[in-house]
């Protein structure tokens, strides 16, 4: 399950989230725009995660938020006691404590309107298709 959270300071959808199950069967992929936090959980044993990035890894810019922040309220499809996470992920701050939140630099009105209109049910729906979710079969190849 892939999750994105809008962490752009000043965004009308700040703190809202969206999830999508990605699998070989549904052929979906997720593009995470700048200013959005990205998290994922594997739902099957022996899963392989692969993702592309737009720039080389930069440890000094690495940020994150707690995956179980109650203010965000992500509905993960597992019991919290079963979660296995890295030591780093266990110490991440809540959204309200996050320093150096991304300012909106290039707002996309279509994305902002769509995010702002998400209802709780839409954010929790695993079959909800959003503008950053597309079929891997139709995506450009690099």
TrEMBL record:
What are the GO MF terms of this UniProt record?
dTDP-4-dehydrorhamnose 3,5-epimerase activity
Sorted alphabetically, which Pfam families does this protein's record hold?
A: dTDP_sugar_isom
Q: Where is this site: Participates in a stacking interaction with the thymidine ring of dTDP-4-oxo-6-deoxyglucose?
A: 57
Catalyzed reaction equations: dTDP-4-dehydro-6-deoxy-alpha-D-glucose = dTDP-4-dehydro-beta-L-rhamnose
Q: Which GO terms describe its biological process?
A: dTDP-rhamnose biosynthetic process; polysaccharide biosynthetic process
Supply the enzyme class, top level: isomerase
Signal peptide range: none
The record's GO CC annotations read:
cytosol
User: What EC number(s) does this enzyme carry?
Assistant: 5.1.3.13
Q: What does this protein do?
A: Catalyzes the epimerization of the C3' and C5'positions of dTDP-6-deoxy-D-xylo-4-hexulose, forming dTDP-6-deoxy-L-lyxo-4-hexulose.
Entry-linked PANTHER family? DTDP-6-DEOXY-D-GLUCOSE-3,5 EPIMERASE (PTHR21047), THYMIDINE DIPHOSPHO-4-KETO-RHAMNOSE 3,5-EPIMERASE (PTHR21047:SF2)
> What protein name does the entry list?
dTDP-4-dehydrorhamnose 3,5-epimerase
The scientific name of the source species is Rhizobium leguminosarum bv. trifolii
User: The organism's lineage?
Assistant: Bacteria, Pseudomonadati, Pseudomonadota, Alphaproteobacteria, Hyphomicrobiales
